[in-house]
């Protein structure tokens, strides 16, 4: 895997995690992160991920990959939170 592609996907993952942790309904932490700074960080990480993906792929392909990856992550992260809650016994 190309280094730019891997770093773009990891930056987008970090951005989605920051966005999820800013949500009041998140289940990974006892309290959500402060919304404004976490969402700002998520946006910066997603833009950086897009820039990295554009280094590895053509721009239209990079947009498609990023949007598909973000959609997948934003569906999976709440399920992982529910799984963590079940494992904690709450």
Structure, described:
The protein has 90 residues and is mainly alpha-helical. The chain has one domain. It has helices spanning 3-21, 35-56, 59-88. Helix 1 packs across helix 3 (59-88) and helix 2 (35-56) packs across helix 3 (59-88). It is elongated. The model has no long low-confidence stretch (mean pLDDT 93).
Structural class: mainly alpha
Spell out the helices and strands N to C: HHH
Distance between the termini: 39 Å
Largest sheet: none
Number of domains: 1
SS summary, helix count: 3
Helical content class = over 70%
Low-confidence stretches: none
Question: What is this structure, in a nutshell?
Answer:
This protein has 90 residues and is an all-alpha fold. It contains 3 helices and no strands.
What's the helix and strand layout?
Blueprint: H1 3-21, H2 35-56, H3 59-88
Helix pairs in contact: 1-2, 1-3, 2-3
List keywords for this structure.
elongated, mainly alpha, 90 residues
